[in-house]
Design goal:
Elements (H helix, E strand, L loop, with lengths): L1 E4 H5 L9 E5 L7 H12 L4 E7 L3 H4 L12 H11 L3 E5 L3 H4 L3 H11 L2 E7 L3 E2 L5 E2 H9 L4 E5 L3 E2 L2 E2 L2 H9 L3 H8 L4 E3 L5 E3 L3 E5 L10 E10 L2 E10 L2 E5 L8 E4 L2
Helix pairs in contact: 8-9
């Protein structure tokens, strides 16, 4: 999979694609609902599957959003969508200037720089300045430009639509099993190198240095990973502090919650 910035996209790096199928979103967690959208995109015949996503959530840029942690870092998101079959990804660095684009202006830019044939979006998808276009407005607009729009119904888990917000709330509540069910995989965190204080057998970190959503508190069975080495241990979370035990020479790169 080749990854492009939005600037590269608008410089014409994908103009040679005459028949593209695309999907658009933050895709935080790439949960089972996202996976259905992406698989629908990949399944469109005789097209190149393209994913438009964001380096950070638009909510983290807009004021008073209340947005906090991610479920999945950008590198892991890109790996998952690559594994599903996306061939090209365009990373949008969402800014206040970008947020002022209307939905129509955004799609006109996409139409100018790629041969869009199919678009897959969720029923509740909205985009544009002040979220001025929903799925039906997008369908009407793009069908007038000869683009097939596939509006995909929400995926349900235990009878309720799956969303990244719901998964964050479930993780914070410590219900890792249900979170994993909505993700379609075990929940894991990739550690940032900064802010981790290493002792001989105890590792301590602050939540703000983890960069991903964590349970509010509790003790959890986890596997810690250092390259090809994996060890079962306990993860302790209390307030803003996170700690676990590891061998002296072990360098934890990732933590997998056991479900």
């Amino acid at each position: 999979m080749k990854v492009y910035s939005w600037n590269e996209f608008t410089q014409g790096h994908l103009r040679n694609i005459s028949a593209a199928s695309a999907t658009i979103g933050v895709f935080d967690g790439v949960h089972i609902g996202h996976q259905r959208l992406i698989r629908n995109t990949v399944s469109c015949k005789e097209t190149t599957p393209v994913l438009f996503t964001f380096t950070k959530s638009p909510l983290s840029t807009l004021r008073n959003s209340g947005f906090q942690e991610y479920i999945m870092n950008i590198d892991d998101r890109l790996q998952v969508v690559r594994d599903i079959g996306i061939e090209k990804t365009v990373l949008i660095d969402f800014s206040l200037d970008f947020s002022k684009l209307s939905g129509a202006a955004f799609f006109l830019l996409i139409l100018e720089y790629i041969g869009l044939r199919d678009l897959s979006i969720g029923m509740n998808f909205r985009c544009g300045y002040q979220a001025d276009m929903g799925s039906e407005e997008i369908r009407t607009f793009l069908e007038s430009h000869k683009v097939r729009v596939h509006v995909i119904d929400p995926v349900l888990f235990e009878g309720i639509p799956v969303s990244s917000t719901r998964i964050r709330e479930t993780i914070r509540a410590g219900d890792i099993i249900r979170a994993a069910g909505m993700l379609g995989r075990e929940y894991s965190i990739k550690l940032l190198s900064t802010g981790v204080r290493k002792g001989l057998v105890e590792v301590h970190a602050e939540k703000r240095h983890i960069g991903q959503v964590l349970p509010d508190q509790g003790e959890f069975d986890v596997d810690i990973v250092d390259g090809n080495k994996k060890i079962r241990t306990k993860l302790h979370i209390s307030g803003d502090a996170v700690s676990w035990s590891q061998p002296e020479q072990f360098r934890t790169e990732r933590i997998h919650f056991i479900t």
